[in-house]
Amino acid sequence: MKIIYNKYFPFGKFLATNIFGIIFCRSDKGRLSEVDKNHEYIHTLQQRELGYVGFMLWYSIEWLVRAVQCRSFMKAYYMLYFEREAYAMERRLDYKRTRKPFGWWHLFVKKGTLLHEVGQFIGDIARFIRRDFMPLKYLYVALLAVLIIIGQTCFNIYDIIIAPSYDDGTSMLRLLMVYAAAYYIVMIPTVLMHHESWRLRQWQVWVLPLLLVAIDGAGQGFDNYREWLMNTDMFYKEKFYLQLVGSFFFRSVFILMLLCVFHWAVTGRVGLFGLHRSRKYLRVYALIYIMLLPLFLLVSFTPQFLEFYPKMQITYYDGAFGWDKLRIAALFELCYANDFLAVESMFRGAMVIGLARWLGPRAVLPMAVTYMCVHLGKPDLELCSSIIGGYMLGILAYRTHHLWGGIIIHLGIAMFFEVMGMIRLLACA
Description:
The chain is built from 22 helices and 3 strands.
């Protein structure tokens, strides 16, 4: 621990301050005692735990919040979690050897509070990453994700490989091949990197993922109802509206029905993986969603945004079936929202919670890359963020065994984009 004595810093009444593990002490206020040194070393341990920058951000934000609450910077200083631990334990000179990681958390954050729940949430993610992390494996997946992004942004592989399949009737087969390739090209090497080749000797790790990507590909490619609609006597506006609604309704119902069958085949019980009643981390998910709103707002002003959102072009379908705009939009958004239940049930439910009994934590990364491929053809920022979001939601589904957090965030993002799309569309009209 390096100590720098000087006449000017820190300012005010403070004797010393700790910045990135270096102690700055006012020489005109005396030398540091062993108790003072222990106090500052506790701060060094706190900073290491939060990666220094994270500590500085938390310390500053908490100080400002508490200063507003008690209207005094000095009172707020003594109320900080980091300072409370340091002052409480500074006279225990052996504390640095007996201290538990995140000691300030264990000592002063009350159970049941949102902050305590945030800590448990972060701890769950950290424990998973510690178990699953291998530099070579994560580098391999990162390079693969970069190649997918380059392929889409520079060469538009969606328009080359996937989009033509909807015209020639091969969409189910092509989607199956793309998703299966993405899944196995991640799953097989990452399992082998962990020296867990015994997992690959289970037939379930070969058959069940293939079955799941086939279900999702078939759901996306299922459009037999379109020909029937075009042969009816309805007006074109009504036909195209039902095609739009059906593209989400039939896909989601088709996938959910097959996932119920999949659940029954795997467990002997009809249902969906991860839809049991659970409130774990729901407040944290809501907090994350609120914190991400500025990013969603930024995405909504990208040049590509209006090419994809809103999914419901309300002005085009106005008057269909004699309905007003509200009823037309409400029916579509209900079917659109149901589609996200199917997506979460597929990727975080069946692919993570369902396959975890054979793949364990190795089920998460293959799912995240496959989920990224589902976003081919969408805005570039959405494509890039999909692997990170899919990975984080996969970790939490694996740790909590429920999907409700993913549904909250995923559906919240979709509805926000729909609203912003409609606002921008009306503003441009």
